[in-house]
Amino acid sequence: MAGRPGIRTRRKQKARRKFSTWPPQWRSFRRARAFARSLGFTSSRQWHAYVRGDMWRTICELPEDIPRAPNCVYVLDWEGWGDWLGTGRTVAPMGKEFLPFKKARTLVRKVGLKSANEWKIWSRGDMPEKGSRPFNIPTNPDKYYIDKGWTSWGDFLGTGNLSARDMKWRSFVQARAYARSLGLRNANHWFEFAKKDKKGEISIPVDIPTHPESAYRNKGWSGWGDFLGTGNPGPKDRNWRSFEDARAFTHLLGLKNLNEWRLYCKGKLESRGEQPENIPNRPDLVYSKKGWISWGDWLGTGNIQPMKRKWRSFKAARDFVRSLELRNAKEWATWASGKMPEKGSRPIDIPSAPYQVYQDKGWTGWRDWLGTDPQRNNTSITHAERKAKRLRKKRKSSRRRWANKAKRG
Length: 409
Hints:
Layout: H1 7-18, H2 29-38, H3 44-52, H4 70-73, H5 81-85, H6 101-111, H7 116-123, H8 141-144, H9 153-157, H10 172-181, H11 187-198, H12 212-215, H13 224-228, H14 243-253, H15 258-265, H16 283-286, H17 295-299, H18 314-322, H19 329-336, H20 354-357, H21 366-370, H22 383-408
């Protein structure tokens, strides 16, 4: 008996079914190019969408004698997609000869772009009011002209702006004197001031950075309190309470979870009073090596994160759950949430999501977990045995039907 043909043979057979003659007789390059130009496409992407049938409006079907990949069929006559589609872009971007740097910079400055982001938008053609980008100017001038005169986007666009790493900042002492004259209280106020400067509401000196903590990192920076003149030390330099005293104070607040702690730190829980200055907002960071255990220990609730909790073994937990005689996963969810008091409450060492905790430790399904269908989850019955059993039942029923037809006949 002949076997199934190979994949190459099947591909040839599939290709032959597409054409009335094999091998296909392609139309001449000039006639095929004339047809392609009549479609009015502007890019190779549109051509590929057309031959795949993905165009939202089908102009006409591709004739059999015009190839889907003309660049592979008409290798000797091929001059590029611009020539094939009639757009005039006769050279591919990789081999295109762009304008010299100075001429390209002169043309771009006339457009009046303000930033590199506007350049990207205009280069994509999304700013029609400013015209379209010439084909002889690259989309990435910072890479193409990097060894041909490129200095910065501010120079190329004519804005004069420099990037942060190329900017010559004012000395730290002078910048700190200016910052202290503003009367700002903390870093958040400084950044709000910098945002207003970007909107043009306030004029901040060009030679003072928005992020002084980075610009003056090894040049005198010691904290926002020193830079703004408030005298407030940073979190690392502040004299915090000891972990035991801070935790005892937090227990007296009676907060239930992390969300309530965050609201308290923001001053939105007026009934609990104000937060002392020597207790941090992020105790998990300040006391990470000084006694920190968990948020449940910090707040006094005793709650432990599921990933850090010690659960009961899978078999012991399954035996306990089966004794509850729950019928399905819906009843399990009801009982786990404490809505079935007649069956007792869920122990702390049994998870509410056992399919996650015991995923690689014996979990096979809800029927096995609840004990509702032990025969189906019996590991002694293999898949092959179950399949053979179904096949025997099928044959037995077919023999019965045949016997009944014989009696009738």
